[in-house]
Predict the 3D structure of the following.
Amino acid sequence: VQLQASGGGLVQVGGSLGLSCEASGRTFEEFSMGWFRQAPGKAREFVAAINWLGSSGMYANSVKDRFTISRDNSKNAMYLQMNDLKPEDTAVYYCTVDRYINPNKWSTTQGYWGQGTLVTVSS
């Protein structure tokens, strides 16, 4: 199983960027998908998650109303549209797939994780 995150790059404050995560090796019926991020020198943190049907999304307070998570099960893919980016959004963004994603209780030893894509927001 592989999760390939892409779409990271350098963007100015207030700009937008879209991330993608494509899963291969199996399908993930009934699995949730999510994004986490890790800023330099900081712990990894939850960003957003979406359920199997794509009908329910969860967001960290820091990104609510700026980021939008979505998925396309026909492509085994997930997306994160990031708007109004801020310097504090600078981080490596990781995608993950698990039966259920708990923003407050998670581990990189649970579920499947991608290799990460770097987002840098310059001021």
In short: The chain is about 0% helix and 50% strand. The chain has a mean pLDDT of 95. Residues 14 and 77 are 26 Å apart (CA to CA).
